[in-house]
Amino acid sequence: MERKKIVVLATAGLAFALMICMGVYHALCWPDPIELNTEGFPSLGDKSAKVEIVLFEDFHCAHCREFTKEIFPEIENEYIKTGKARYVIVLLAFMDGSKPLANGAMAVFESTPERFFPFVNAIFRKMGEEPVVESDLFGIAEEVGGIDLNYLKSCIRNHCYYAQLDSALQWAKNVMGKNFGTPALYVNGVRVSTTSFYDVQAAVLEFGNRRSNE
After folding, report:
1. Calpha distance 102→85 (Å, rounded)
2. pLDDT tens for residues 123-134?
3. In 11-120, at which residue ranges do the beta strands (DSSP E only) sit?
4. Of 129, 140, 165, 196, which has the fewest Cβ atoms less than 10 A away?
C-alpha cells in the first residue's frame, strides 16, 4: 500500500513538473504579438472579450477543413459560448477555385451575417465529400436556410467581393510575411499552432489578459 502511494505521488509530481516545463517552453518560444485590425470581419462571441482568436483560412486548404471540423468545435464550446473569446475569420482566396466560394460566403455575411458561419461550415462539410464549385453555392445556401438568395445570386454573378478578397489577401501576406500560409491562427496577436486544441489553450492561458491592439 505504501509503495502504491509513493507511485501515485511520484506520477502526480511528474505530471506537474511536465506542465511547468511545457509552460516555460511556450513562454520561451512564443513569437512577439502583433496588432491585428479585425474590424469588419465575420466574428462570433463577445466583442469585448479579453481574448481575440483570429483564423485566416482558404476554402481549398485541406488543413483548414480539418481545423474547422476537429478544433473549432472545442474553441466554440470552451471560449465562444462561454463569452471568454471573440472568434474572427479572415477568408482568403489564393488557392485555385477558392475565390468564387469566398465571394459567395462574403455575400452571405453582408446580407445575413448570422448565417455566415453555418454557410461556411456547410461548404467545408460538403468539400469533405466532393469538390465544391461556384454553381454549388446556391444549393448549399438553400440547405442552410435563412439566407438572402437573391443577393447571393447577384453577387455570384457580379463578383461583388473580389476586390475585398484581394485586399484581405494582401493584408494577410503583410501580416505573415515569409510565413504566409493557411490555416493561420492568432491568439491576441500571437501566432499559434493549428495542430491541436492544447496549443490554443496554452496561448489563451499565456496571453488571455491582453488584447493585441492594446
Report:
1. 24
2. 999 998 889 999
3. 43-45, 51-58, 85-92
4. 129
